Amino acid sequence: MKGDTRSSGTFPALRRVIATLRGPDGCPWDRDPGNMCEELGDLLFQVLIHTQLAEEAGEFTMRDVLGGISDKLVRRHPHVFGEATADTPQAVVEQWDDLKAGERGGGSALAGIPRSLPAAVYAQALQRRAAGAGFAFASVDDAWKALEEELTELREAQTPMQQREELGDTFFALTNLARQLDVDAEGALMSTCHGFEALFRRMEGILDERGVDLKQAPYEDKLALWEEAKGLRDGSVRGSV
C-alpha cells in the first residue's frame, strides 16, 4: 500500500486522506488547482445542515458521513492507496469512471449523471461517460465532420419541430467537439456571454452620449457602433453603466 488508508468516521481521518491525495505522491487530478472548488463555505453549510437534520431524524450521523467519504476516496484512488498506476489527470478520470462502473454493478455507463445540470455540462458529462465506455469519435476531425453534418441538417430543416431537433443535435455536436478540444463548453459560452454583455453596455454608452435610438438606427450604423464599441478599451468607456 502506497498511502495512508487509516479511514474511519472522524474528521482527522478524512483530513489525512485529503493530505495524502494532495501530497507529492498523491493524485495528479487532486493536485490541479484549476479543479479546486472555491465555494467551500456554502458547501460546508449544506453538509452541516443536512447532517443535522438527519441526526435529528435518527437517519445517519456525521461519523457516517465522514467515514463514507473517507472510504470512497480510498477505494477510488488505488493508484495512491493501492498498487494501481495513474500518472496523469486523464488516467485518473478513466480509472475513476471504471471504478464507478464496477460499483454500479453492470448498470448503464450513463447512470448517476444529474439531469438538473446545465445543458452544456450535462451534454459533456454524457459524452465523457460514453467515451469512457468506448463510444467516441476516433479523432477531432470526426467531431468536426459531425458538427458540419448537423449544421447542414439544421439549414435544411423545414418545420419548427425539425428545427428544434436539429438545433439540439447541433448543440450536442458542438459540445462534443469542445470536449475533443479539451474545452469546457459551459465555461466558454459563459465567457462569451459576459463579453457580449460588456460590449453591449459599452455600445449603450455611446448611444446615450450621442442621443441615438438603437431601434431606429439603420442596420449598417448598428454594425458600425458595435465595431466602435469593440475598439474601445475598458478604461475609456464613455457613459456606460
What portion of residues is helical?
Answer: 55-70%
List the secondary-structure elements in sequence, H or E: HHHHHHHHHH
Domain module count: 3
- Our measurement of the CA-to-CA distance between the termini, rounded to an integer number of angstroms, reads 59 Å
Per DSSP, the total helix count is 10
Instruction: Report the biggest beta sheet as strand number plus sense, adding barrel if it closes.
Output: none
What class, by secondary structure content?
mainly alpha
The number of strands is: 0
The 3D shape can be described as extended
pLDDT under 50 segments (min length 5)?
235-241
Strand content: under 5%
Mean pLDDT: 83
Q: Using the CA coordinates, give the radius of gyration.
A: 25 Å
Task: Give a description of the structure.
By secondary structure, this protein is mostly helical. 64% of the residues lie in helices and 0% in strands. It is built from ten helices and no strands. The longest helix is centred in the last third of the chain and has 26 residues, at 185-210. The radius of gyration is 25 Å and the shape is extended. Residues 235-241 have low confidence and may be disordered.
Tags for this entry?
241 residues; Helix Hairpins; 3 domains; extended; mainly alpha; 10 helices
In a few lines, what is going on in this structure?
The protein has 241 residues and is an all-alpha fold.
SSE blueprint and pairings:
Elements: H1 11-22, H2 40-57, H3 62-75, H4 78-81, H5 89-103, H6 119-132, H7 140-156, H8 160-180, H9 185-210, H10 219-231
Helix pairs in contact: 1-3, 6-8, 7-8, 9-10
